[in-house]
Amino acid sequence: MQRTLRHFYRLWLFVFLAFFFFTSFYLLRSARKQPTENPTKSFVQSAPVVEDPIMEQDANESVASPPPRTSQRVVTFYYPWYGNIKTNGEWMHWNHKILVDNGASFEPPDSIGANFYPLHGPYSSADPDLIETHMKEISNARIGIICISWWGKTNADSQLRQTGYTDSIVPAILDTALRYRIQVCFHHEPYEGRTPASVRADLEYINKKYGKHPAYFRDANRGNRPMFFVYDAYLTKEHEWSTILLPGGPQSIRGTYFDAVMVSLYVESPRDKSLATVGGFDGVYTYFASVGFTPGSTPSNWPQLSEWAEQNNKLFFPSVGPGYDDTRIRPWNERNKKDRENGKYYDQMWTKAIEVRPPFISITSYNEWHEGTQIEAAVPKTIPNFKYSDYQPLDADYYLRRTLEHVNNFDPLL
User: Which of 8, 73, 174, 258 has the smallest CB count inside 10 Å?
Assistant: First the structure.
Protein backbone atom coordinates (compact mmCIF):
# COMPACT_ATOMS: atom_id res chain seq x y z
CA MET A 1 0.00 0.00 0.00
CA GLN A 2 2.74 2.48 0.93
CA ARG A 3 4.65 1.53 -2.20
CA THR A 4 1.54 2.20 -4.32
CA LEU A 5 1.06 5.64 -2.71
CA ARG A 6 4.69 6.59 -3.30
CA HIS A 7 4.34 5.57 -6.93
CA PHE A 8 1.13 7.61 -7.20
CA TYR A 9 2.76 10.73 -5.74
CA ARG A 10 5.77 10.41 -8.01
CA LEU A 11 3.50 10.17 -11.03
CA TRP A 12 1.62 13.37 -10.11
CA LEU A 13 4.89 15.20 -9.40
CA PHE A 14 6.15 14.21 -12.84
CA VAL A 15 2.92 15.39 -14.47
CA PHE A 16 3.08 18.71 -12.61
CA LEU A 17 6.71 19.37 -13.52
CA ALA A 18 6.06 18.47 -17.15
CA PHE A 19 3.06 20.83 -17.28
CA PHE A 20 5.08 23.67 -15.72
CA PHE A 21 7.98 23.15 -18.12
CA PHE A 22 5.91 23.08 -21.31
CA THR A 23 3.73 26.03 -20.19
CA SER A 24 6.81 28.19 -19.45
CA PHE A 25 8.41 27.25 -22.76
CA TYR A 26 5.27 28.17 -24.68
CA LEU A 27 4.91 31.57 -22.99
CA LEU A 28 8.58 32.44 -23.53
CA ARG A 29 8.37 31.44 -27.18
CA SER A 30 5.22 33.52 -27.67
CA ALA A 31 6.84 36.56 -26.08
CA ARG A 32 9.84 36.34 -28.39
CA LYS A 33 7.58 36.17 -31.42
CA GLN A 34 5.53 39.19 -30.32
CA PRO A 35 6.23 41.95 -32.92
CA THR A 36 7.59 45.35 -31.85
CA GLU A 37 5.35 47.88 -33.56
CA ASN A 38 7.81 50.82 -33.62
CA PRO A 39 10.83 51.03 -31.29
CA THR A 40 11.34 54.75 -31.99
CA LYS A 41 7.70 55.52 -31.30
CA SER A 42 7.88 53.67 -28.03
CA PHE A 43 10.92 55.69 -27.02
CA VAL A 44 9.24 59.02 -27.80
CA GLN A 45 6.11 58.02 -25.93
CA SER A 46 8.12 57.08 -22.86
CA ALA A 47 9.84 60.46 -22.82
CA PRO A 48 8.45 63.15 -20.50
CA VAL A 49 5.81 65.43 -22.00
CA VAL A 50 7.33 68.72 -23.16
CA GLU A 51 5.12 71.68 -22.33
CA ASP A 52 7.48 74.26 -23.83
CA PRO A 53 5.97 75.64 -27.09
CA ILE A 54 9.47 76.07 -28.48
CA MET A 55 9.85 72.31 -28.40
CA GLU A 56 6.51 71.44 -30.04
CA GLN A 57 8.18 70.66 -33.34
CA ASP A 58 10.16 67.88 -31.66
CA ALA A 59 6.99 65.84 -31.00
CA ASN A 60 7.53 63.74 -34.12
CA GLU A 61 11.31 63.56 -33.87
CA SER A 62 13.41 60.98 -32.03
CA VAL A 63 15.29 63.31 -29.69
CA ALA A 64 17.01 61.26 -27.03
CA SER A 65 17.65 64.25 -24.78
CA PRO A 66 15.94 67.59 -25.36
CA PRO A 67 18.03 70.78 -25.09
CA PRO A 68 18.31 72.34 -21.64
CA ARG A 69 15.85 74.98 -20.56
CA THR A 70 17.50 78.23 -21.50
CA SER A 71 17.24 81.54 -19.66
CA GLN A 72 15.02 84.18 -21.21
CA ARG A 73 16.91 86.75 -19.13
CA VAL A 74 20.31 86.30 -20.78
CA VAL A 75 21.16 87.75 -24.19
CA THR A 76 24.35 87.29 -26.19
CA PHE A 77 25.40 89.38 -29.16
CA TYR A 78 25.83 87.15 -32.20
CA TYR A 79 27.61 88.06 -35.45
CA PRO A 80 26.44 86.35 -38.67
CA TRP A 81 28.80 88.31 -40.92
CA TYR A 82 31.53 85.74 -41.59
CA GLY A 83 32.11 84.00 -44.91
CA ASN A 84 34.67 81.70 -46.50
CA ILE A 85 35.67 80.38 -49.90
CA LYS A 86 34.01 76.98 -49.49
CA THR A 87 30.53 78.29 -48.67
CA ASN A 88 30.47 81.81 -50.10
CA GLY A 89 33.13 81.83 -52.78
CA GLU A 90 34.95 84.63 -50.97
CA TRP A 91 36.29 85.57 -47.57
CA MET A 92 34.09 87.81 -45.43
CA HIS A 93 35.28 89.57 -42.28
CA TRP A 94 38.09 87.09 -41.57
CA ASN A 95 40.04 89.19 -44.08
CA HIS A 96 39.26 92.38 -42.12
CA LYS A 97 41.37 95.39 -43.03
CA ILE A 98 43.84 96.83 -40.55
CA LEU A 99 42.22 100.10 -39.54
CA VAL A 100 45.04 102.48 -40.34
CA ASP A 101 45.71 104.59 -43.42
CA ASN A 102 46.15 102.28 -46.40
CA GLY A 103 45.80 99.30 -44.09
CA ALA A 104 46.18 95.90 -45.70
CA SER A 105 43.67 93.08 -45.40
CA PHE A 106 44.42 89.82 -43.62
CA GLU A 107 44.79 86.65 -45.67
CA PRO A 108 42.76 83.71 -44.32
CA PRO A 109 42.66 80.92 -43.50
CA ASP A 110 45.84 81.23 -41.42
CA SER A 111 46.05 84.98 -41.04
CA ILE A 112 42.74 86.44 -39.84
CA GLY A 113 41.58 89.76 -38.44
CA ALA A 114 41.49 88.60 -34.83
CA ASN A 115 43.85 88.07 -31.89
CA PHE A 116 42.38 84.63 -31.18
CA TYR A 117 41.83 81.71 -33.55
CA PRO A 118 38.47 79.87 -33.56
CA LEU A 119 38.22 76.18 -32.79
CA HIS A 120 35.91 75.82 -35.81
CA GLY A 121 38.34 77.66 -38.08
CA PRO A 122 37.42 80.69 -40.22
CA TYR A 123 33.87 79.56 -40.84
CA SER A 124 30.94 80.83 -42.86
CA SER A 125 27.95 82.16 -40.96
CA ALA A 126 25.78 80.75 -43.77
CA ASP A 127 26.96 77.17 -43.25
CA PRO A 128 23.98 75.17 -41.87
CA ASP A 129 26.24 72.78 -39.95
CA LEU A 130 28.03 75.72 -38.36
CA ILE A 131 24.73 77.35 -37.34
CA GLU A 132 23.67 74.04 -35.79
CA THR A 133 26.93 73.85 -33.82
CA HIS A 134 26.60 77.43 -32.62
CA MET A 135 23.01 77.04 -31.45
CA LYS A 136 23.88 73.84 -29.61
CA GLU A 137 26.80 75.53 -27.81
CA ILE A 138 24.71 78.56 -26.91
CA SER A 139 21.86 76.38 -25.67
CA ASN A 140 24.21 74.26 -23.57
CA ALA A 141 25.29 77.47 -21.84
CA ARG A 142 21.58 78.16 -21.15
CA ILE A 143 21.68 81.43 -23.07
CA GLY A 144 18.09 81.90 -24.16
CA ILE A 145 18.29 84.91 -26.49
CA ILE A 146 20.72 85.76 -29.27
CA CYS A 147 20.84 89.30 -30.60
CA ILE A 148 22.01 89.07 -34.20
CA SER A 149 23.98 91.84 -35.84
CA TRP A 150 21.70 93.11 -38.61
CA TRP A 151 22.87 95.52 -41.29
CA GLY A 152 19.64 95.98 -43.21
CA LYS A 153 17.96 94.08 -46.01
CA THR A 154 19.97 95.84 -48.72
CA ASN A 155 22.93 97.19 -46.77
CA ALA A 156 26.26 95.92 -45.45
CA ASP A 157 29.04 97.02 -43.14
CA SER A 158 32.37 98.29 -44.49
CA GLN A 159 33.95 94.80 -44.47
CA LEU A 160 31.21 93.16 -46.56
CA ARG A 161 30.80 93.45 -50.30
CA GLN A 162 27.64 91.33 -50.29
CA THR A 163 24.71 93.58 -49.37
CA GLY A 164 21.92 92.10 -47.31
CA TYR A 165 24.14 89.21 -46.19
CA THR A 166 23.20 89.29 -42.50
CA ASP A 167 19.49 89.43 -43.36
CA SER A 168 19.81 86.48 -45.74
CA ILE A 169 20.96 84.22 -42.89
CA VAL A 170 18.12 85.09 -40.52
CA PRO A 171 15.72 82.31 -41.68
CA ALA A 172 18.31 79.57 -41.07
CA ILE A 173 19.18 81.03 -37.67
CA LEU A 174 15.52 81.17 -36.63
CA ASP A 175 14.80 77.60 -37.71
CA THR A 176 17.87 76.22 -35.98
CA ALA A 177 17.48 78.33 -32.85
CA LEU A 178 13.97 76.97 -32.40
CA ARG A 179 15.26 73.42 -32.02
CA TYR A 180 17.51 74.53 -29.16
CA ARG A 181 15.04 76.65 -27.17
CA ILE A 182 16.75 79.88 -28.29
CA GLN A 183 14.91 83.07 -29.19
CA VAL A 184 16.18 85.65 -31.66
CA CYS A 185 16.17 89.44 -31.49
CA PHE A 186 17.96 92.04 -33.61
CA HIS A 187 20.97 94.29 -33.11
CA HIS A 188 20.19 97.19 -35.43
CA GLU A 189 23.51 98.39 -36.80
CA PRO A 190 24.34 101.90 -38.13
CA TYR A 191 24.34 101.21 -41.87
CA GLU A 192 24.99 104.13 -44.18
CA GLY A 193 21.95 106.40 -44.36
CA ARG A 194 20.22 105.08 -41.27
CA THR A 195 17.52 107.42 -39.99
CA PRO A 196 14.57 107.04 -37.63
CA ALA A 197 12.35 106.74 -40.72
CA SER A 198 14.49 103.93 -42.14
CA VAL A 199 14.53 102.20 -38.73
CA ARG A 200 10.72 102.37 -38.67
CA ALA A 201 10.63 100.78 -42.12
CA ASP A 202 13.06 98.10 -40.93
CA LEU A 203 10.87 97.27 -37.95
CA GLU A 204 7.88 96.88 -40.22
CA TYR A 205 9.86 94.71 -42.66
CA ILE A 206 11.32 92.46 -39.95
CA ASN A 207 7.98 91.97 -38.25
CA LYS A 208 6.22 91.15 -41.50
CA LYS A 209 8.91 88.70 -42.60
CA TYR A 210 9.91 87.05 -39.32
CA GLY A 211 7.36 88.13 -36.72
CA LYS A 212 5.29 84.94 -36.84
CA HIS A 213 8.25 82.61 -36.41
CA PRO A 214 8.11 80.87 -33.00
CA ALA A 215 11.80 81.64 -32.39
CA TYR A 216 11.26 85.39 -32.87
CA PHE A 217 11.70 86.85 -29.40
CA ARG A 218 8.75 88.63 -27.86
CA ASP A 219 8.90 89.98 -24.33
CA ALA A 220 5.92 88.49 -22.52
CA ASN A 221 6.37 90.98 -19.66
CA ARG A 222 6.20 94.00 -21.96
CA GLY A 223 3.18 93.59 -24.15
CA ASN A 224 4.55 90.58 -26.04
CA ARG A 225 6.58 92.98 -28.14
CA PRO A 226 9.80 92.09 -29.98
CA MET A 227 13.09 93.63 -28.84
CA PHE A 228 15.63 95.66 -30.81
CA PHE A 229 19.02 96.90 -29.65
CA VAL A 230 20.09 100.02 -31.53
CA TYR A 231 23.85 100.40 -31.79
CA ASP A 232 25.27 103.95 -31.84
CA ALA A 233 21.81 105.46 -31.46
CA TYR A 234 23.54 108.65 -30.30
CA LEU A 235 24.47 109.37 -33.94
CA THR A 236 20.91 110.66 -34.26
CA LYS A 237 19.47 113.39 -32.02
CA GLU A 238 16.88 112.47 -29.43
CA HIS A 239 14.19 114.73 -30.90
CA GLU A 240 14.50 112.85 -34.19
CA TRP A 241 14.09 109.49 -32.45
CA SER A 242 11.03 110.82 -30.67
CA THR A 243 9.21 111.06 -34.01
CA ILE A 244 8.96 107.25 -34.08
CA LEU A 245 9.36 106.26 -30.43
CA LEU A 246 6.98 108.56 -28.54
CA PRO A 247 3.25 107.82 -28.67
CA GLY A 248 2.46 111.25 -30.13
CA GLY A 249 5.22 111.20 -32.74
CA PRO A 250 4.22 111.82 -36.38
CA GLN A 251 5.56 108.37 -37.41
CA SER A 252 5.18 106.65 -34.06
CA ILE A 253 5.52 102.87 -33.90
CA ARG A 254 3.64 102.82 -30.59
CA GLY A 255 0.43 100.89 -30.80
CA THR A 256 1.21 99.46 -34.23
CA TYR A 257 1.64 95.76 -34.97
CA PHE A 258 5.40 96.37 -35.23
CA ASP A 259 5.73 98.21 -31.92
CA ALA A 260 8.85 97.01 -30.13
CA VAL A 261 10.96 97.26 -26.99
CA MET A 262 13.69 99.62 -28.22
CA VAL A 263 17.02 99.62 -26.37
CA SER A 264 19.75 102.18 -27.12
CA LEU A 265 23.49 101.97 -26.57
CA TYR A 266 24.58 103.78 -23.43
CA VAL A 267 28.04 105.30 -23.65
CA GLU A 268 27.91 108.40 -21.48
CA SER A 269 25.59 110.72 -19.58
CA PRO A 270 23.59 112.93 -19.94
CA ARG A 271 23.35 112.46 -23.72
CA ASP A 272 22.44 108.78 -23.69
CA LYS A 273 20.00 109.08 -20.80
CA SER A 274 18.24 111.73 -22.83
CA LEU A 275 17.87 109.28 -25.71
CA ALA A 276 15.64 107.25 -23.41
CA THR A 277 13.76 109.96 -21.54
CA VAL A 278 13.35 112.43 -24.44
CA GLY A 279 13.90 110.23 -27.47
CA GLY A 280 11.54 107.50 -26.31
CA PHE A 281 13.81 104.45 -26.05
CA ASP A 282 12.60 101.82 -23.60
CA GLY A 283 16.00 101.09 -22.09
CA VAL A 284 19.77 101.18 -22.43
CA TYR A 285 22.57 98.61 -22.79
CA THR A 286 26.27 99.13 -22.18
CA TYR A 287 27.69 96.68 -24.78
CA PHE A 288 31.46 97.25 -24.47
CA ALA A 289 33.48 94.56 -22.70
CA SER A 290 36.38 96.89 -21.91
CA VAL A 291 36.07 98.19 -18.37
CA GLY A 292 36.79 101.93 -18.30
CA PHE A 293 36.48 102.36 -22.07
CA THR A 294 33.21 104.26 -21.52
CA PRO A 295 31.25 105.27 -18.41
CA GLY A 296 28.65 102.70 -19.47
CA SER A 297 31.16 99.86 -19.64
CA THR A 298 32.48 100.66 -16.15
CA PRO A 299 30.75 98.39 -13.60
CA SER A 300 31.19 100.87 -10.74
CA ASN A 301 28.62 103.05 -12.57
CA TRP A 302 26.05 100.28 -12.89
CA PRO A 303 24.29 100.76 -9.53
CA GLN A 304 23.57 104.39 -10.43
CA LEU A 305 22.45 103.45 -13.93
CA SER A 306 20.20 100.73 -12.58
CA GLU A 307 18.61 103.13 -10.10
CA TRP A 308 18.09 105.76 -12.82
CA ALA A 309 16.45 103.16 -15.08
CA GLU A 310 14.07 102.06 -12.34
CA GLN A 311 13.11 105.64 -11.50
CA ASN A 312 12.37 106.39 -15.15
CA ASN A 313 10.59 103.11 -15.96
CA LYS A 314 13.39 102.05 -18.31
CA LEU A 315 15.28 98.79 -18.77
CA PHE A 316 18.94 98.50 -17.93
CA PHE A 317 21.07 95.84 -19.61
CA PRO A 318 24.57 95.60 -18.11
CA SER A 319 26.86 93.94 -20.66
CA VAL A 320 29.50 91.49 -19.47
CA GLY A 321 32.45 90.15 -21.43
CA PRO A 322 35.48 87.89 -20.98
CA GLY A 323 38.05 90.48 -22.07
CA TYR A 324 38.89 92.81 -24.93
CA ASP A 325 41.64 92.82 -27.53
CA ASP A 326 41.21 94.35 -30.97
CA THR A 327 44.87 95.23 -31.57
CA ARG A 328 45.12 92.95 -34.59
CA ILE A 329 42.77 95.26 -36.53
CA ARG A 330 43.31 98.40 -34.40
CA PRO A 331 47.01 98.38 -33.51
CA TRP A 332 46.66 101.84 -31.99
CA ASN A 333 44.11 100.72 -29.35
CA GLU A 334 46.40 99.01 -26.86
CA ARG A 335 45.09 101.14 -23.98
CA ASN A 336 41.64 99.50 -24.14
CA LYS A 337 42.98 95.96 -24.22
CA LYS A 338 41.75 93.89 -21.26
CA ASP A 339 43.45 90.62 -20.37
CA ARG A 340 41.16 87.69 -19.56
CA GLU A 341 43.17 86.81 -16.44
CA ASN A 342 42.27 83.13 -16.84
CA GLY A 343 38.58 83.87 -16.44
CA LYS A 344 38.83 86.26 -13.50
CA TYR A 345 37.92 89.31 -15.59
CA TYR A 346 34.72 87.60 -16.82
CA ASP A 347 33.79 86.47 -13.32
CA GLN A 348 34.15 89.99 -11.94
CA MET A 349 31.90 91.50 -14.61
CA TRP A 350 29.22 88.87 -13.97
CA THR A 351 29.39 89.49 -10.25
CA LYS A 352 28.93 93.24 -10.70
CA ALA A 353 26.07 92.73 -13.14
CA ILE A 354 24.16 90.34 -10.88
CA GLU A 355 24.60 92.69 -7.90
CA VAL A 356 22.36 95.34 -9.51
CA ARG A 357 19.57 92.76 -9.98
CA PRO A 358 18.75 93.67 -13.59
CA PRO A 359 15.87 92.11 -15.53
CA PHE A 360 18.35 91.01 -18.21
CA ILE A 361 22.11 90.58 -18.63
CA SER A 362 23.74 90.81 -22.05
CA ILE A 363 26.98 89.08 -23.04
CA THR A 364 29.50 90.73 -25.36
CA SER A 365 29.89 88.50 -27.20
CA TYR A 366 29.40 85.02 -28.53
CA ASN A 367 31.57 85.55 -31.62
CA GLU A 368 32.85 89.09 -32.19
CA TRP A 369 36.34 87.80 -32.97
CA HIS A 370 37.75 91.11 -34.23
CA GLU A 371 37.49 92.67 -30.77
CA GLY A 372 38.45 89.55 -28.82
CA THR A 373 35.25 89.50 -26.79
CA GLN A 374 34.13 86.02 -27.89
CA ILE A 375 33.12 83.24 -25.52
CA GLU A 376 33.19 80.81 -28.45
CA ALA A 377 35.95 78.20 -28.25
CA ALA A 378 39.47 79.23 -29.34
CA VAL A 379 42.63 77.20 -29.93
CA PRO A 380 46.38 77.90 -29.90
CA LYS A 381 47.88 78.73 -33.29
CA THR A 382 51.17 80.19 -34.50
CA ILE A 383 51.91 81.51 -37.97
CA PRO A 384 55.01 83.27 -39.30
CA ASN A 385 55.50 86.53 -37.38
CA PHE A 386 52.43 86.09 -35.16
CA LYS A 387 51.24 83.92 -32.30
CA TYR A 388 47.51 83.96 -31.57
CA SER A 389 46.28 84.38 -28.03
CA ASP A 390 44.39 81.46 -26.52
CA TYR A 391 42.67 80.42 -23.30
CA GLN A 392 45.38 78.12 -21.95
CA PRO A 393 45.83 76.76 -19.33
CA LEU A 394 42.02 76.72 -19.53
CA ASP A 395 40.19 74.49 -22.00
CA ALA A 396 39.17 75.73 -25.43
CA ASP A 397 35.50 75.82 -24.40
CA TYR A 398 36.11 77.19 -20.91
CA TYR A 399 34.12 80.41 -21.39
CA LEU A 400 31.06 78.56 -22.65
CA ARG A 401 31.12 76.28 -19.62
CA ARG A 402 31.81 79.17 -17.27
CA THR A 403 28.90 81.08 -18.80
CA LEU A 404 26.60 78.22 -17.85
CA GLU A 405 27.68 78.55 -14.21
CA HIS A 406 27.01 82.29 -14.22
CA VAL A 407 23.64 81.90 -15.94
CA ASN A 408 22.63 79.30 -13.35
CA ASN A 409 23.60 81.71 -10.61
CA PHE A 410 21.70 84.62 -12.15
CA ASP A 411 18.61 82.70 -13.26
CA PRO A 412 18.53 79.30 -11.52
CA LEU A 413 16.56 76.36 -12.88
CA LEU A 414 13.61 75.73 -10.56
Answer: 8
